[in-house]
Amino acid sequence: MKYSYWELKRIKQLPIKVNSMDAVHAGWHPYHKLKTIGMEALGEQQLQNALSAFSGTQSLHKIPLLNTIITDGILYLANTANCFWLVTDASVIAKSLMDRSPFVTVDLKKLSPEKKEALGYEAIIEYSDGNNTILETRKYHLTDFPLERIRLFFTNNTLMLPSEY
Fold it and tell me: Of 14, 44, 51, 156, whose Cβ has the fewest other Cβ atoms within 10 Å?
Protein backbone atom coordinates (compact mmCIF):
# COMPACT_ATOMS: atom_id res chain seq x y z
CA MET A 1 0.00 0.00 0.00
CA LYS A 2 1.46 3.32 -1.05
CA TYR A 3 0.59 6.49 0.82
CA SER A 4 -0.43 9.70 -0.90
CA TYR A 5 1.45 12.95 -0.44
CA TRP A 6 -1.21 14.25 1.94
CA GLU A 7 -1.16 11.08 4.08
CA LEU A 8 2.61 11.33 4.41
CA LYS A 9 2.26 15.04 5.18
CA ARG A 10 -0.21 14.18 7.96
CA ILE A 11 2.12 11.48 9.31
CA LYS A 12 5.01 13.97 9.46
CA GLN A 13 3.56 15.96 12.34
CA LEU A 14 6.64 16.22 14.54
CA PRO A 15 9.63 17.96 12.92
CA ILE A 16 12.89 18.00 14.85
CA LYS A 17 14.74 21.28 14.70
CA VAL A 18 18.45 21.80 15.10
CA ASN A 19 17.75 23.89 18.20
CA SER A 20 18.24 21.57 21.19
CA MET A 21 15.23 22.90 23.13
CA ASP A 22 12.99 22.17 20.16
CA ALA A 23 14.42 18.65 20.11
CA VAL A 24 13.58 18.19 23.78
CA HIS A 25 10.00 19.23 23.08
CA ALA A 26 9.92 16.99 20.00
CA GLY A 27 10.70 13.88 22.01
CA TRP A 28 14.43 13.23 21.77
CA HIS A 29 14.85 13.80 25.49
CA PRO A 30 14.83 10.38 27.22
CA TYR A 31 12.31 11.45 29.87
CA HIS A 32 9.88 13.11 27.49
CA LYS A 33 6.77 11.03 26.81
CA LEU A 34 6.12 11.13 23.10
CA LYS A 35 2.67 11.24 21.56
CA THR A 36 2.93 8.81 18.66
CA ILE A 37 0.68 6.89 16.36
CA GLY A 38 1.86 3.76 18.18
CA MET A 39 1.86 0.11 17.21
CA GLU A 40 -1.67 -0.37 18.51
CA ALA A 41 -2.76 1.63 15.47
CA LEU A 42 -0.31 0.07 13.00
CA GLY A 43 0.44 -3.63 12.63
CA GLU A 44 3.70 -5.06 11.37
CA GLN A 45 2.58 -5.22 7.73
CA GLN A 46 1.16 -1.68 7.82
CA LEU A 47 4.44 -0.38 9.25
CA GLN A 48 6.42 -2.19 6.53
CA ASN A 49 4.13 -0.67 3.89
CA ALA A 50 4.45 2.80 5.37
CA LEU A 51 8.26 2.54 5.48
CA SER A 52 8.44 1.33 1.88
CA ALA A 53 6.54 4.46 0.80
CA PHE A 54 9.46 6.71 1.74
CA SER A 55 11.56 7.56 -1.30
CA GLY A 56 14.26 10.12 -0.80
CA THR A 57 13.52 12.65 1.90
CA GLN A 58 11.88 16.07 2.01
CA SER A 59 13.92 17.28 4.96
CA LEU A 60 16.78 16.25 7.19
CA HIS A 61 16.59 16.25 10.98
CA LYS A 62 19.52 16.58 13.35
CA ILE A 63 19.77 14.65 16.61
CA PRO A 64 21.24 16.95 19.24
CA LEU A 65 24.36 15.77 21.08
CA LEU A 66 25.05 13.07 18.48
CA ASN A 67 25.14 15.47 15.52
CA THR A 68 23.67 12.68 13.43
CA ILE A 69 21.29 13.52 10.64
CA ILE A 70 18.21 11.39 10.11
CA THR A 71 15.73 11.33 7.25
CA ASP A 72 11.94 11.58 7.28
CA GLY A 73 11.63 7.78 7.14
CA ILE A 74 13.85 7.24 10.18
CA LEU A 75 11.96 9.93 12.09
CA TYR A 76 8.68 8.23 11.19
CA LEU A 77 10.05 4.83 12.24
CA ALA A 78 11.29 6.17 15.59
CA ASN A 79 7.98 7.90 16.33
CA THR A 80 5.70 5.10 15.16
CA ALA A 81 7.60 2.10 16.54
CA ASN A 82 8.87 4.04 19.57
CA CYS A 83 12.41 2.90 18.81
CA PHE A 84 14.55 5.93 19.58
CA TRP A 85 16.96 3.46 21.18
CA LEU A 86 17.58 1.90 17.76
CA VAL A 87 18.24 5.27 16.12
CA THR A 88 20.62 6.27 18.90
CA ASP A 89 22.48 2.95 19.04
CA ALA A 90 22.77 2.68 15.26
CA SER A 91 24.05 6.25 15.01
CA VAL A 92 26.67 5.91 17.74
CA ILE A 93 28.03 2.54 16.61
CA ALA A 94 27.94 3.29 12.88
CA LYS A 95 29.80 6.56 13.52
CA SER A 96 32.51 4.63 15.34
CA LEU A 97 32.88 2.36 12.29
CA MET A 98 33.24 5.13 9.71
CA ASP A 99 37.05 4.85 9.74
CA ARG A 100 36.69 1.23 8.58
CA SER A 101 34.00 1.82 5.96
CA PRO A 102 32.38 4.99 4.61
CA PHE A 103 29.09 3.11 4.15
CA VAL A 104 27.58 1.01 6.95
CA THR A 105 24.49 -1.18 6.83
CA VAL A 106 22.62 -1.76 10.08
CA ASP A 107 20.66 -5.02 10.17
CA LEU A 108 18.41 -5.75 13.14
CA LYS A 109 17.15 -9.34 13.35
CA LYS A 110 14.91 -10.73 16.05
CA LEU A 111 15.61 -14.35 16.92
CA SER A 112 13.08 -17.17 17.02
CA PRO A 113 11.87 -18.25 20.48
CA GLU A 114 14.00 -21.41 20.24
CA LYS A 115 17.16 -19.49 19.42
CA LYS A 116 16.33 -16.89 22.06
CA GLU A 117 16.10 -19.56 24.73
CA ALA A 118 19.28 -21.32 23.55
CA LEU A 119 21.43 -18.20 23.12
CA GLY A 120 20.01 -16.02 25.89
CA TYR A 121 19.29 -12.91 23.85
CA GLU A 122 16.36 -11.76 21.76
CA ALA A 123 17.86 -9.78 18.87
CA ILE A 124 21.12 -8.93 17.16
CA ILE A 125 22.22 -5.92 15.20
CA GLU A 126 24.94 -6.51 12.63
CA TYR A 127 26.91 -3.62 11.23
CA SER A 128 28.52 -4.35 7.87
CA ASP A 129 30.14 -2.52 4.98
CA GLY A 130 27.37 -3.41 2.52
CA ASN A 131 29.46 -6.18 0.96
CA ASN A 132 28.66 -8.82 3.61
CA THR A 133 31.75 -7.98 5.65
CA ILE A 134 30.51 -7.77 9.23
CA LEU A 135 32.25 -4.98 11.10
CA GLU A 136 30.51 -5.40 14.46
CA THR A 137 27.67 -7.37 16.07
CA ARG A 138 25.63 -6.30 19.10
CA LYS A 139 23.33 -8.59 21.10
CA TYR A 140 20.18 -7.37 22.81
CA HIS A 141 18.66 -9.41 25.61
CA LEU A 142 15.29 -7.64 25.38
CA THR A 143 13.62 -5.63 22.66
CA ASP A 144 10.16 -4.30 22.00
CA PHE A 145 10.88 -3.56 18.35
CA PRO A 146 7.74 -4.50 16.37
CA LEU A 147 9.39 -5.80 13.17
CA GLU A 148 11.21 -9.12 12.82
CA ARG A 149 13.98 -7.47 10.82
CA ILE A 150 14.95 -4.14 9.37
CA ARG A 151 17.88 -2.73 7.44
CA LEU A 152 19.14 0.83 7.74
CA PHE A 153 21.96 2.66 5.97
CA PHE A 154 24.48 5.03 7.51
CA THR A 155 26.72 7.19 5.34
CA ASN A 156 27.93 10.80 5.41
CA ASN A 157 26.78 11.08 9.04
CA THR A 158 23.20 10.32 7.93
CA LEU A 159 20.98 7.43 9.03
CA MET A 160 18.32 6.48 6.47
CA LEU A 161 16.02 3.77 5.20
CA PRO A 162 17.26 1.84 2.14
CA SER A 163 14.45 3.34 0.03
CA GLU A 164 15.74 6.83 0.90
CA TYR A 165 19.30 6.15 -0.30
Answer: 156
